[in-house]
Write a structure and sequence with these properties.
disordered N terminus, single chain, 2 helices, Immunoglobulin-like, about 5% helix, mainly beta, four-stranded antiparallel beta sheet, about 900 residues, Neuraminidase
Length: about 900
């Protein structure tokens, strides 16, 4: 029978006994997932920020749309702290998150606390409290040469992570994994399974409250033959008791439960181990709690059922004597009990919790109370969580009044999970009528589109605020108006389209009076194209959405342009064969009437045509898309007149090399078009482009290389500012999953004349969308990470905006490719009157550092002198200024770096 225990031990044995195989697998993962050796996913190498703003500051919490597993819990005397694995960053590995819950069952950290977001594979987080801190430990593969190592981080009772890079607790050669920890009043003791001797042995170390590892080589606790794993630890006021699953008696027995006592000084008192339960059938894993007199150790036990296990327990006194030989029965399993069990003591009884399987509801969470004499109080097990789907990894703690049980759960209908919790009284009563979700965040937003409406910008996006755990596949469209100064004109975002399932991938255009938004609507692979009109005041004109193309087959990724009389919407369409997309379209009048009820065939060439974009010139539309008719993916285009006739029926080849070109975008300068795309050129993606005349002639037969920096440059967008084209893209030159936004100017003659940083904040900035406003101003809207909104934890992706050139301050050249540039930072920021200013000079130069307000008025001079190469630190005091947003400008040798300051009084 394959169980989670079998899988877990297979995984452990793979790491220990087959290091070459394991290393090959994980090297492949790292090469696929990381573009560099920089492991700090949410720490950017460049930090030049100017004028970025979140468009919608509404906080509506919804479940994290992510995969969440492996929870653990501790209590600090005031609040619970639950930790888990979380991949909400859309990364191919997990981060460690946590959140506090008060005694009333209210979540304090609604967005969760990111404890470790380093780019590495992490598993099995555990948490304990002591010395004014929570200590979270896990195993981590960031050090490729040593495989998995043990790391930890301290978190204050206020939820502040003191060690965001992690404390390296054990980085010896060969894998260390599956750690646990406890506190003795002076130090923490961290234990783990260690493969340095070839087997899975048990090691530990003392860790001071300051984060100092006191036993760098580790203390061997058990080096018996074969495997020792799933280590648990508790402290009785004098010594630690450590328990584990032990394979030393194989093949006579499967795994048995052993233990050993260790002094606070690190001396192992039971070097041969204490055999807690060695009956046939297999025992383990275990969990421990201490009642002030004795320990209770519980474990999974297969002595009765060969294909499942029950819950057994035994008491041990502080001298290491087992009081219940062979253990006693606590609870039965209907079918199968999971690897994860937990136990806590409330001053009168213990509460043991475990996962159980039912044929009707799947995996559920059950519990039973046991008194200090070893008598089971609940002979009928307590149902804690029983929903259709799967509940797993339960953990329990006691707060002096009640218990809190946490676990992760998944519904059968969705590919995601959530961390749940429920309070239980010492009498075994459920204090919460139903399970509550802990893993929540401010609703995430994605895929922005933007248009200029004559006096303001309108930005639209898809939004997950309507999600619930039972219905995680729900997205609605929202929008908001933005003034040319960057002011948000709507007190709350405007709901544009809602309904069952997804309303996603919006496009927007303006007809001189109103906006039209088109979007995909549907789910489960079946999507249609709908539209909604909105006036310049943000009022929805179509209470019933406009069906632009409703077909049994899938229509996706609409694009939109206006020709002065009507709109033209294009999309990719699957009607000619499953997974064989073509380009279709329809014209829509300003009154919202679909003029082409039978869609226009734009391109139905063999294989796939996808991701169309369209704009209008002076007499015709020009459309582009990616096309795989030649084997590789190339960029094609065509002209379409205003009555919907395709003028280039075979398509115009804009770029057709042996490499792949993807995701085109285009803009018109009054004479020609500039088409841009991401191009792999035989390596990482770069940004390329080509100009096309209104007659369809390719003016740049050799593509213009707009950006070929290290790493990937992807998802380009382009607008014409009246003088030059402005091209922007997401850029991972500092490592995958560390994207910043970069930009460049391209002249109408096709010359790249400038390159600059657009947004370089902590976290990812992706999927930019550009539109031109008044004069030469453009607005870029993009999806970007935010850890907080209005001083409330968010931990989500939001839609950001930025004006270029920045409003109120003349545009400075922030970055020149290939040059040395200033690196400058502030901490803390946001600040209260005073903050620390740090900067580095790569050579001797004249430095001028000044502060401006949002109107561009100089309000303070900081530095104005010649300085030598090196690191500098200064105190920035803004106590004489009023609360608000300011900008720190640093000039040196003709170059400028600008950083936003948030001053809070």
């Amino acid at each position: 029978m394959i169980t989670s225990r079998n899988v877990r031990y297979f995984y452990v044995l793979l790491l220990i006994l087959s290091p070459l195989i394991a290393r090959s697998y994980y090297d492949f993962s790292k090469n696929a997932y990381r573009g560099s050796n920089d492991f700090s996913c949410l720490q950017n190498n460049v930090n030049i920020n100017f004028g970025e703003f979140i468009l919608d500051t509404t906080i509506v919490t919804s479940p994290v749309v992510s995969i969440l597993v492996m929870s653990d819990i501790a209590f600090d005397g005031t609040n619970y702290f639950v930790v888990w694995l979380d991949n909400r960053y859309d990364l191919p590995y997990f981060s460690i998150f946590g959140a506090r819950i008060n005694r009333d069952g209210i979540v304090i950290d609604t967005g969760g606390i990111p404890i470790s977001t380093i780019c590495s594979i992490k598993y099995f987080p555990a948490v304990t409290y002591g010395g004014s801190y929570f200590l979270v430990v896990w195993h981590d593969d960031r050090n490729v040469s040593t495989d998995f190592d043990i790391y930890g981080a301290r978190v204050t009772s206020d939820g502040i992570v003191l060690d965001p890079q992690g404390i390296p607790i054990c980085t010896q050669s060969a894998p260390q994994f599956d750690p646990n920890a406890a506190f003795d009043g002076n130090n923490f003791f961290v234990v783990w399974t260690d493969a340095r001797l070839g087997n899975g042995d048990l090691y530990g170390t003392r860790l001071s409250p300051s984060g100092t590892v006191l036993d760098p080589q580790g203390i061997p606790i058990s080096t018996a033959p074969r495997m020792q794993g799933d280590v648990e630890i508790a402290f009785d006021g004098s010594n630690y008791l450590i328990t584990w699953d032990d394979e030393r008696n194989f093949p006579t027995n499967d795994f048995d439960v052993y233990g050993a006592r260790v002094t606070p000084g690190g001396t192992v008192l039971d070097t041969s181990g204490i055999p807690i339960c060695t009956v046939s059938g297999g025992q383990g894993p275990s969990a421990i709690a201490y009642d002030g007199t004795n320990y209770l150790v519980i474990w999974n036990d297969a002595r009765v059922h060969s294909d499942s296990s029950d819950i057994y327990g035994a008491r041990l006194n502080p001298q290491g004597i087992v009081l219940d030989t062979n253990g006693f029965f606590i609870g039965n399993a209907d079918n199968w009990v999971s690897w994860f069990i937990s136990v806590a003591f409330d001053g009168t009884n213990y509460l043991a919790v475990w996962q159980d399987y039912s044929d009707t509801t799947g995996f559920d969470i059950y519990g039973a109370r046991v008194n200090p004499s070893g008598v089971v109080v609940d002979t009928i097990k307590i149902p804690i969580a029983r929903r259709i789907g799967s509940e797993d990894s339960p953990c329990v703690a006691f707060d002096g009044m009640n218990y809190l049980v946490a676990w992760y759960g998944a519904a059968d209908s969705i590919p995601f999970a959530a961390i749940f919790y429920r309070r239980i009284s010492p009498a075994g009563a459920m204090l919460d009528s139903s399970e509550k979700i802990l893993s929540i965040q401010a609703s995430s937003q994605d895929y922005p589109a933007a248009a200029w409406g004559g006096s303001s910008y309108f930005v639209v996006w898809d939004d997950e605020r309507g999600n619930s755990f039972e219905n995680l596949i729900m997205k609605d469209l929202y929008g908001i108006r933005v003034s040319p100064t960057g002011a948000i004109l709507d007190s709350q975002s405007i709901l544009i389209a809602s309904g069952n399932y997804y309303q996603i991938f919006p496009a927007i255009a303006f007809d001189g009076t109103n906006y039209l938004v088109t979007y995909d609507s549907g789910a489960l692979g079946i999507y249609d194209i709908y539209g909604v009109r909105i006036n310049q005041s943000g009022v929805i004109l179509d209470t019933v959405k406009i069906p632009i193309c409703v077909n049994y087959f899938t229509q996706r990724y609409s694009t939109l342009a206006f020709d002065g009389a009507n709109y033209l919407s294009l999309w990719q369409d699957e009607r000619n064969g499953s997974s064989n997309f073509d380009i279709y379209g329809a014209r829509i009048s300003p009154a919202g009437t679909v003029l082409d009820t039978i869609p226009l065939e734009i391109c139905t060439a063999p294989t796939n045509q996808q991701y169309p974009k369209v704009t209008y010139g002076t007499t015709n539309y020009f459309a582009v898309w990616q096309d795989s008719r030649n084997g590789s993916i190339n960029i094609y285009g065509t002209r379409i007149n205003t009555v919907g006739i395709v003028l280039d029926t075979s398509g115009i080849i804009i770029s057709a090399t042996g490499y792949n070109q993807n995701y085109p975008a285009l803009a018109f300068d009054g004479l020609n078009y500039l088409v841009v795309w991401q191009d792999d050129l035989g390596g990482p993606f770069d940004i390329c482009g080509a100009r096309v005349s209104q007659t369809g002639t390719i003016l740049d037969t050799n593509a213009i290389i707009i950006c070929a920096a290290p790493g990937n440059q992807e998802s380009p967008t382009v607008a014409f500012d009246g003088t030059n084209y402005v091209v922007m893209w997401q850029d991972s030159r500092f490592g995958n999953y560390q994207e910043n936004l970069y930009g460049a100017k391209v002249s109408p003659a096709g010359t790249v004349i400038d390159s600059f940083v657009v947004a370089s904040q902590p976290g990812r900035q992706i999927l930019p969308a550009l539109t031109r406003g008044n004069g030469n101003q453009v607005l870029v809207a993009y999806t970007g990470w935010t850890d907080s909104i209005n001083q409330h934890s968010a931990q989500t992706m939001r839609i950001w905006g930025k004006l270029y050139p920045p409003y109120g301050i003349a545009e400075g050249r922030q970055y020149k490719p290939g040059s040395n540039h200033i690196n400058i930072d502030l901490f803390p920021n946001p600040m209260k009157n005073v903050t620390n200013l740090y900067y580095n000079l790569s050579y001797d130069t004249w430095v001028k550092i000044t502060v401006y307000d949002v109107t561009g008025r100089l309000v303070k001079g900081i530095v104005n002198k010649q300085q030598k190469k090196g690191d500098y630190q200064a105190i920035l005091n803004l106590s004489d200024l009023s609360q608000g947003v300011y900008f720190l400008r640093s000039d040196f040798n003709g170059y400028t770096a600008i950083k936003k300051i948030i001053l809070i009084k």
